[in-house]
Amino acid sequence: MEKFVSKLEKYVGPIANKIESQRHISTIKNGMISLMAVLMVGSIGMIVSGIGTFFPADSAVGTFFSEYSAILNIPFQFTYGVLSIYAAISIAFYHAKQLDIPPFHCIIAGVSATLVLNTKVVDGVLDTAFLDSRGLFVAIFASLLAVEFMNFAVKKKLTIRIKGLPDMIGKTFESIVPLLLVIVVSALISQLSIKLADGQIIPELFTTMLAPAVTGIDSAWGVFAVVFLEMLFWFFGLNGYAILVGFTLPFMTQYVAANAAAFQAGAEVLPHVFTEAWWGTVAAATGSGVTGAIAILGLRSKSKQLNAAGKASIVPAIFNISEPVVYGFPVAFNPYFFIPFVIGTPLLSVFSYFIFRLGFIRPPVAQVGGMPTPIAQYLITLDWKAPIYAILVIAAAVVMYYPFFKMYEKSVLEKEKELAKKDERNFDDDLDFDLDF
After folding, report:
1. Is residue 349 very low, low, confident or very high in pLDDT (cuts 50, 70, 90)?
2. Would you say 337 and 354 are in contact if contact means Cβ atoms under 8 Å apart?
């Protein structure tokens, strides 16, 4: 096991570090994580409007929610409904920071490209339907490319420069030509798509082309692969979520948006399970790897070291924070935990996937953050069975980790005994001094 771990550390670690630090991946990760605030605002509005479903339609409360549903849905419509615009802003901002250039005109370029590519004129009316999550991928790539071009144009001096102007006005003139080119090129690409794809704009084509990938990640195999890689990275001390989220979050954001729209429309069956909220509060209840189970075992450990680690990590675990367990027990680089952490966690996640997919519990319809278990599980699903299931997942993880924890505990206790004996010998040696003068 130690040889296997050392080989993985040697070959996998550097690759993971390179992936995490690659500038485009880093931009997407940071930009998408920033969208969590937007999604939470929309989710809060949806949760409030969803309260009406718990009351009979002809009751006073039910009638109130029915009559004012349009007003109550405003937070949802102006967050999820124009999600690609928020994505363009966040991606452009973080990529400008990566390139160390002023962000303001980069944001304008990213938003302009997104608006041009994600809209079209139908019967003289601007169709903005694809400014929602369906335009998310276009917003990501359009913003990245727009900022890259802005950086290129400034460096190659493809700008209007007038000497003697104040700095702010000078930079505004410098941005005119690059912004114009961004809009013109985006318009040409959009019109080319409409001509060649029977009236479809880019996000419509993306929806068709990416359908297999979207379906693939929201599957039992997709869940297993993502969670397995996440646990493998965590095992080597790397933040598996941070490495993978740049790839997965665009898909997962689309999933939760689709679920939210279906839920708002009154659908009984929701299309997706593997959203970011599900990943973080069900597959990773109490933290990546369901590490709260290890904290619970630590609380009952005879080892002073493991007991102290359990006390220190139990409260963070309630808030789905895994670092105190991963680095405190530790789980990282610990061969005793490799099998349950890296292999067992994905299998448990796949089981949970089927529980939600088969309709025993409603899949996520909202995005929340910072909420403790089991409150978070209820808020993301609006299903009372979800928090109960989260507790069952933690219990199953306790059973899964128990034999491996006991083996590790035994080795720690032996070391503690050896250390205690050594300290006792040193104490005796200190007392053994010569009284003769």
Report:
1. very high
2. no
Tell me the two tokens of residue 331. 């789980």
345-357 and 385-431 are packed helices; what angle lies between their axes, rounded to 10 degrees?
160
Structure tokens at 377: 């599980």
Separation between Cα atoms, residue 281 and residue 290, nearest integer Å:
9
Over 50: is that where the pLDDT of 437 sits? no
CA distance 8 to 14: 10
Helix axes 23-50, 2-21, angle to 10 degrees: 90
What contacts 24+ positions apart, CB below 8 Å, involve 327-330? 327/237, 329/294, 329/298, 329/408
Lookup: tokens for 269 = 């069956």
- What is the C-alpha to C-alpha distance for residues 362 and 364, in angstroms, rounded to an integer? 7
Distance separating alpha carbons of residues 275 and 286, to the nearest angstrom? 17
Cβ atoms 283, 356 nearer than 8 A: no
> What letter represents residue 335's amino acid?
P
The token pair that represents 114 in the structure block = 């997104």
Q: Which of 280, 271, 290 is nearest to 348 (CA)?
A: 290
